[in-house]
Amino acid sequence: MKIGILGAGNIGGTLGTKWTRAGHSVQFGVRDSNKSEVQKLVKALGAKASTSNIAHAIDFGEVVVFAIPGTSMDETITANAKALDGKIVVDTANKITAPVMNSLATFKARAPQAMVFRAFNTLGWENIENPMYGNIPADMFYCGPDGEPRHQVEDLIKDSGLRPIYLGGPEQAGLVDAVLSLWFTLAVKQKMGRNFAFKVLTR
After folding, report:
1. 42 falls in which pLDDT band (50, 70, 90)?
2. Which of 35, 89, 92, 171 would you label with 101, given CA atoms 20 to 30 Å apart?
3. By residue range, what is the domain housing residue 58?
4. H or E segment to which residue 36 belongs
5. For residue 195, is it within any domain?
6. Buried/exposed 40-68: b ≥16 CB within 10 Å, e otherwise
């Protein structure tokens, strides 16, 4: 699969690393492709990785992953709205100080034909880098439209090493974000640190 990742920081870089190792082609869309950290990352990932500006990465990707700061989301969506229509989009960015942490309303208003999923926002990047606790993978809660695009996103979650847990359509984005609030409360307010994750257990 061809994946455009907007951002090459902790989340974007970690996901790009996992997905190139799984055989996907990744293009990082960044403001400065010559930045030393970006060049180092792309070189380390080899032929399956490349870098460009944000617009080119969106054009490149069958799936477009937003891994940029939450404060940049509305501006970036608006500037690239036409190119995003019809794309499978994954919103990983958290607007921590805003009343609503996700950007699904902006996608709906600016790029209504985009198929938008909320995922990879409920755990620290360290959990994505190493999702295994013993021999048990951490769970990744996500939501978005059902159908073939969902299966593609679910495969990408699996390829990152996490176990996908589907919570329903886009209307469940607030529930996904509530998992982040729980994780953040335990990590910071209850001083558990960042090295923990969630697991759904069934009999």
Report:
1. very high
2. 35
3. 2-189
4. helix 36-45
5. no
6. ebbeebeebbebbebebbbebbebbbbbb
